[in-house]
């Protein structure tokens, strides 16, 4: 008896220490930037409370059951010469206890869970900021319909105002997940058949309660570069958000959202929607790239300023983490001439067939919107830290950086798009220009 109690206490003590160590490790801030244990929204807080409630009830059950088992094993173990124990069957009181207590626990877990579901799935507030979140292979598009703003991979939200994410996909199923904002939602392709069905989005409602940069990622396997589909959410005070909107706004309304379909289906799919047709036109018409350069890609600059074998292709996890946490290199202002040249090249090359930059003639809607690209932490949706060298590397050969990327390189075509044919000099200038957009 005595030994049994001591054993139980020791086991519980060891368990408590181990649990505390695990929990401490989980909550160490930036060392784990995608922890769900440090939510920064009302929604994340609500989910955390449900989790904590469930967790501690299950821990209580684990500890009690483990202690009882250990006690029984030790207390009633076989002794030499002991007769067989009395054989019994049924015990009404015990059966009532082990039915009623779990039922009570289920109710105590179930009530706050259902309350939280209703509290977090309600109607959005009248002044909620609507952000349309669109998953693409393999990047994220963010549209602010009321603000006339479109951006990619990094999005801004105001602190203290409810945000209403309307989540869907342009191709396959993705999953939007920024753990510290709370929640995780599949981004489903909108049904393309009945027009009325196009409004089926998944939703997240949250109000950020502190400023910061919060990273996330796609959480549903969506193809070969599923692992390189990062999200950077930036929560800023309301005034800063308004300033950001002004800096991002296009003087003209943005083109409608489209769902670019694979080139092979576009050719034989007359029933695509208007937006898809626009994308189809872009896909079907080869961008004027090759003609502009006047020479086949193979005869152009033989030496790339970066090579895809000698240098590590991906940023280290630490570099990416710092980048996603908001530490970005600053563009070099001494490059003014290069930047101007880069803008001229960008706007005269096939880049604009796929990309938009607010305030310019670049109006493409197939690829990520590049307005204020220099403000983004990474290039390629988390593939590399957003430095000039990496942007050059990306433009030259996106697929060497990110498997399956749909953007053509300077020499290699991709996804039905011809190679862009940019020389390495031109690429350097374009990279400088893009990073100057801040
Ligand atoms: Cu998108 Cu995984």
Quick recap:
The chain has 13 helices and twelve strands. By secondary structure, it is of the alpha+beta class. It is elongated and about 95 Å long.
Multimeric state: single chain
pLDDT averaged over residues: 78
Bound molecules: dinuclear copper ion
Structural class: alpha+beta
Strand order of the largest sheet: 3-2-1-5-8
Kindly state the percentage of residues in helix: 25-40%
Q: Could you tell me the radius of gyration in angstroms?
A: 28 Å
The total count of helices amounts to: 13
Globular, elongated, flat, extended or rod-shaped: what is the shape?
A: elongated
Low-confidence segments, ≥5 residues, pLDDT <50?
Answer: 1-5, 258-314
What is the H-and-E element order?
HHHEEEEEEEEEEHHHHHHHEEHHH
Could you walk me through the main structural features you see in this protein, from its secondary elements to its overall organization?
- The protein is an alpha+beta fold.
- It is built from 13 helices and twelve strands.
- Strands 3-2-1-5-8 form a five-stranded mixed beta sheet.
- Strand 6 (174-176) and strand 7 (185-187) form a beta hairpin.
- Bound molecules: dinuclear copper ion.
- The site of dinuclear copper ion has 9 residues, from loops.
- Dinuclear copper ion binds next to loops.
């Amino acid at each position: 008896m005595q030994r049994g109690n001591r054993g139980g206490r020791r086991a519980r003590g060891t368990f408590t220490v181990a649990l505390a160590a695990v929990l401490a490790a989980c909550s160490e801030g930036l060392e784990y930037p995608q922890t769900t244990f440090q939510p920064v929204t009302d929604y994340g807080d609500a989910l955390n409370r449900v989790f904590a409630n469930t967790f501690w009830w299950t821990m209580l059950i684990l500890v009690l059951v483990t202690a009882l088992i250990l006690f029984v094993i030790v207390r009633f173990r076989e002794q030499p010469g002991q007769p067989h124990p009395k054989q019994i069957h049924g015990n009404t009181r015990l059966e009532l206890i082990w039915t009623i207590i779990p039922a009570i626990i289920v109710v105590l877990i179930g009530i706050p869970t259902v309350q939280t579901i209703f509290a977090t799935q309600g109607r959005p507030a009248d002044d909620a900021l609507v952000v349309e979140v669109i998953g693409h292979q393999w990047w994220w598009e963010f549209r602010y319909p009321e603000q006339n703003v479109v951006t990619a991979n990094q999005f801004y939200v105001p602190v203290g105002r409810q945000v209403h994410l309307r989540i869907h996909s342009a191709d396959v199923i993705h999953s939007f997940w920024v753990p510290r904002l709370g929640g995780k939602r599949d981004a489903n392709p909108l049904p393309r058949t009945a027009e009325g069905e196009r409004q089926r989005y998944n939703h997240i409602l949250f109000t950020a309660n502190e400023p910061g940069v919060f990273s996330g990622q796609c959480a549903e396997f969506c193809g070969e570069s599923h692992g390189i589909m990062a999200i950077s959410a930036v929560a800023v005070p309301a005034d800063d958000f308004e300033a950001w909107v002004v800096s991002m706004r296009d003087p003209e309304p943005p083109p409608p959202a489209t769902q670019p379909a694979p080139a092979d289906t576009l050719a034989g799919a007359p029933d695509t929607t208007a937006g898809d047709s626009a994308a189809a036109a872009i896909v079907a018409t080869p961008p004027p790239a090759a003609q502009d350069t006047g020479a086949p890609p193979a005869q152009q600059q033989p030496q790339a300023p970066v090579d895809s074998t000698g240098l590590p292709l991906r940023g280290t996890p630490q570099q990416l983490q710092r980048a996603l946490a908001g530490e970005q290199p600053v563009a070099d202002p001494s490059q003014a001439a290069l930047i101007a040249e880069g803008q001229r090249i960008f706007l005269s090359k096939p880049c604009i067939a796929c990309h938009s930059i607010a305030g310019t003639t670049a109006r493409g809607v197939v690829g990520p919107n590049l307005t204020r690209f220099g403000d983004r932490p990474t290039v390629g949706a988390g593939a590399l830290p957003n430095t000039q060298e990496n942007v050059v590397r990306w433009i030259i050969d996106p697929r060497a950086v990110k498997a399956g990327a749909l953007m053509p390189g300077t020499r290699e075509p991709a996804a039905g798009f011809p190679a862009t044919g940019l020389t390495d000099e031109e690429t350097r200038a374009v990279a400088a220009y893009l990073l100057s957009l801040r």
